[in-house]
Amino acid sequence: xxxxxxxxxxxxxGIGDAKAKQxxxxxxxxxxxxxxxxxxxxxxxxxxxxxxDLTHDSMALVNGIVVTPVSEHYVRKGLTYYKVQIRDDxxxxxxxxxxxxxxxxxxxxxxxxxxxxxxxxxRNTKEILSPEFEPSSQSQCTKCIVPIYxxxxxxxxxxxxxxxxxxxxxxxxxxxxxxxxxxxKEHSLCSVEFAIKNIHFPKDAExxxxxKKRLIFEEFFLLQVALRKMKSGTKKVSGPAFKNNDITxxxxxLPFSLTKAQKRVTEDIIDDLSSGTVMNRLVQGDVGSxxxxxxxxxxxxxxxxxxxxxxxxPTEVLARxxxxxxxxLLESLGIKCELLTGSTTAKNKxxxxxxxxxxxxxxxxxxxALITDKVKFSSLxxxxxxxQHRFGVRQRMMLxxxxxxxxxxxxxxxxxxxxxxxxxYGDMDISVIDELPPGRQRIDTYCVGENMRERIYAFIRxxxxxxxxAYIVCPAVEESEIEGLKSVEEHYSALxxxxxxxxxxxxxxxxxxxxxxxTAMSDFISGKSKILVSTTVIEVGVNVPEATLMVIExxxxxxxxxxxxxxxxxxxxxxxxxxxxxxxxxxxxxxERMKIMAQSNDGFKIxxxxxxxxxxxxxxxxxxxxxxxxxxxxxxxxxxxxKASGIEAEKLLLKDPALSEEKHFYIKEATDxxxxxxxx
Length: 680
Ligand code: ADP
Ligand code: MG
Prior knowledge:
With 680 residues, the protein is of the alpha/beta class. Among the domains are: 47-143, CATH 2.40.50.140; 248-277 and 290-412, Rossmann fold, CATH 3.40.50.300; 444-600, 3-Layer(aba) Sandwich (Rossmann fold). The protein has 23 helices and 21 strands. The longest helix has 28 residues, at 205-232. It is globular and about 95 Å long. The protein binds adenosine-5'-diphosphate (ADP) and magnesium ion.
């Protein structure tokens, strides 16, 4: 049985390796992916306009008989245009095509075709520019409502339309109905077959709405089933109740006192840990709000009660920093700490595994290396994930599964808008650190163009002379194919050799060896280097209080939340800090985004704007990671469907928690796959 979900698109006629490659840029491509590659909009090409009635600058569909052969007009290399005259019973028009040398094979004098294109009327000639056309007996791209897809280079609308139509024709008998029949009925949803057909080639506006409604429902439904299923494992299970919850000793050893917000969150956590029920808590706090110390307090409590803790961070740089920052303090209180990352040597790894398993180690810091099979604990009771938005939900779960009953604490700087938090962290308790440590000043942010470069360099020099440090972030690692994009390596060599030859400059990026990254970071932390040229590897969590200046090259390339994260690397000490955004181009959207950055230091406000400007997909950085993005649903507009499908998801899992009933097989399959790809 040809299952569209499992069929490579190359099996479709007309898609060879080259086309498949181009399509792959749109994501992994099976026939089902193609069929669920939804149009962004539609063009209503159902109404025919007579040539006499054509109006300038409009889009129109004309039925006309070709009355001249195709004529060729060479302008210059790379630009040839082709003309052909057509007529209907009201007048004559000229169709103009560019660089289409095979046109004469398709347009024959004396035959009637339908043309759809932009109308240009000058003086008394009526032109149709680059029209799409087909014999008037056909109605694939004319005389119907036509889907317009988001494109990637090398792929045309016409090609996609044809492929989708072919895929539908060949596979619609094998579509899987994932929504149970009773739910379809209850919510008056159409069949999957009708939905897929009409989302691409709607019979009329009504059919399109019906198709959309079903697909939006399905998307939200599957997501919520997937999330609930994963979470059900952590719900209200009884867990180790901590008895020794006095943190005075820890607070005395801490060089600062907690902010009110930190105290509140600490109390939440102590309540959880001592309750006898497993903790499942998300701590949300803007960059620099002081989440790390909250983790440290939890680790301290855990050790004091005789259990082990693991704290996982998304990058090696960050895991190491947590270890370096916290282990002296924790060790001074008698807590044995270790660090485990991908670059820990095999020999050391073996020792670390041993000490974890025999209980010698109380607290372990690390990266994904912590969730490999070899890592076993004697008494893990607390799993902390820092910068949760960088991990898959599954990965966080895997860490918790390393103990019998494990309290979970996840920390994120991503200020999740309420609607998202509801579905994503539905049954997690949330604590918010809504206050920065005292003495912090606003980070002044400026958006500048190339003409300011000299002055910015002079400014960097002045800051360094004052004893401060600066980050310079570039969007690319190597010399880039895209013109005008600053690469770390090039920029580093220019800065270190000719612009600041007298100042020690460091470089760090993701493609460097772990050892070199570590050296670069520790040099910058100790002040051995004063300027650090980097990619976004420093985006999450890195803490160097002496750094007061963040310069971001090609700032237009970054998302707002990402810029805010990067900016959060400065302003961590007492000194006044600055952020300079170099922009190489200014679209209206860029202008808008940079204005927000300059005006606001509030991560929540920035992320809401980001959500508005770019949509929820990009909010979670989907383009890079393939996370929570919606193919068709829209969190802002489809809220009632979100709620309705959430209720159904809950009911379903009450009836069949493991989705083991045969009629739920396809939901199980679809949601398992979804869960594997979720990173929230
Ligand atoms: P984030 O929330 O971004 O993870 P960190 O935990 O890295 O923030 O804290 C940022 C900086 O603020 C660190 O240098 C930390 O030592 C300091 N800090 C945290 N809490 C306080 C506090 N209550 N008073 C003073 N400094 C604090
Ligand atoms: Mg942090």
